[in-house]
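hi!! sorry for the late reply, been swamped w classes. u asked for the two structures so here they r. pasted raw, havent cleaned anything up. first the sequence of the first protein and right below it the tokens
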Amino acid sequence: VMYNTLAVWLLTVSVVLTSLGNVWNVFWCTRAKSDRHGRYGDGWMVSNFPFLHSLTRLLPLAAVFSLANIWFIVSPDGIFAQHPRLFCWTVGLLFTKLAIHLMIAHLCSVEFHPFRRTMVPFFFLAAHIAFTYINTRQFPMIDERLVLLEFLLLSSTTFAHLAINCISETARALKVNIFTVPKAKQS
């Protein structure tokens, strides 16, 4: 067994166990009748089914996790065996971007909106592959390496955009200069 494959399976098991523990904690927090942990939104689902509403916020994270594992397992070209670092970077950047949005929403006490434009190409490709497989009982002929590189470019570009915007907005809120040195301190 290759060490990188073992590491991925170890991390996958760790993520699943941590996620189940977090879902358990959210379940008990939403059952409590106090607003100690905050209530975000005022829709019908939030007031009638708060736990279910909480779970819907995790759908994109679960989709990225599931689709990456499916691609890892059933890839016709064995994409992970050929390009393990590219695969891990691509999926990691996507997952991290979604997690950062979740953390920012939590820190700013605003409702988390998980369905981001970044995810659209990934979901369209997954739907295309699924529909092709359902209709023809075989996977479509695509260059997986090229798709992986395109997804890496997309995920790294959107992650860089998120990082720069987070830094800029935080600096604006704190009224501090970033990426520049004030004229008074230049000498």
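now the second protein. again sequence first, tokens right under
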Amino acid sequence: VIQMSETEESNNEAIRRPNVNKYKSQRSVLSSRKKDVTPKEINELFTRSGWTPRDEGKWKTALEMTYCVVSARLFKDQKLVGFARATSDLGLNATIWDLAVDKDLPDPMLMKRNIITYILKEIRLELPGCSVALISRPEDVELFESLQFVADPDGIRAMALIDDDYPLML
């Protein structure tokens, strides 16, 4: 059971985090400290998640320039099993990128929900009123809709530039 302060209880926008202890083998610690992850670990997680690893030097730069990072490590062995990051202009907009969760977890969708809930809490705490967008795989759309994200609000569509010299790495 999560205890909420009176302020949080009275705030209609308060986030109630799901129970991360549903599966003993999935118990983890969530962190929002950038120094808690390395580019090598993120690439290893990307491989286990079905994503293409990226250049470690570019990861280093991306992490330095990222507004907020959330990582998840298993209690039992400190293995990185979840990651997401958010960029922001620190005023009007934030975008969540690179949500990756180890497919071998008993309930990867629960871990995704916990990571997104945590990163949203961080964004809302530091940037109240900021709009939040995210880049999503099709299989995650239902999860994000359950977290009140709306696909194509008011007809807005996201687009990506495809350049043959630089493959798309969403």
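hope this helps!! also noticed smth abt the second:
The beta strands are 28-31, 68-74, 80-88, 93-101, 131-134.
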